[in-house]
Sequence to fold (181 residues):
Amino acid sequence: MRSATLPLLLLVTACASAPEPPRQSSGVPLPPQPDFAPPAPQLADFVLVDKSDRALWLYAKGRAFRRYDGLQFGDAPTGHKRFQGDERTPEGRYTIDYRNPRSSYHLSLHISYPNASDRAYAAQYGRSPGGAIFIHGQPNGLASGHRMAGDWTDGCIAVSNAEIEELWSLIPDGTPIEIRQ
Fold:
């Protein structure tokens, strides 16, 4: 009999000392909260753009963790950007070096084009290499959820507004980016 009394006594004691669950203003208990914080979103440490696949991958510690398809480029998407106005998207290794929340497009992440090699190539032809290359959303003022048709940028990489919002939160300034054909 004594062995049955001890577990019952422990159960009554545990219940009596358990804290009262928090309640909503209506008196209904709130669901239990986890004892841990949810994991922080994974941040990219490398971005890869494949122009021929029209895909962008985010990497962290050598592993791809996100893929975005259906990228839109300049009106002449094939080949490396050489000069201002050629409407090509650059190819090579660059850096996401700053962001523009007041862009003419829904958010934008700046790509560090042109590099020294790009400037030297254009200079030997007496031309400007161009610049202001970004990953950005759709034009401001376009109806929510809509996308421009086809390739329409002047050399930038366009994604949907929802995608640029996610990229904005996952790509820190200083992240390397490789763009390849």
In short: The chain has three helices and eight strands. The two ends are 81 Å apart (CA to CA).
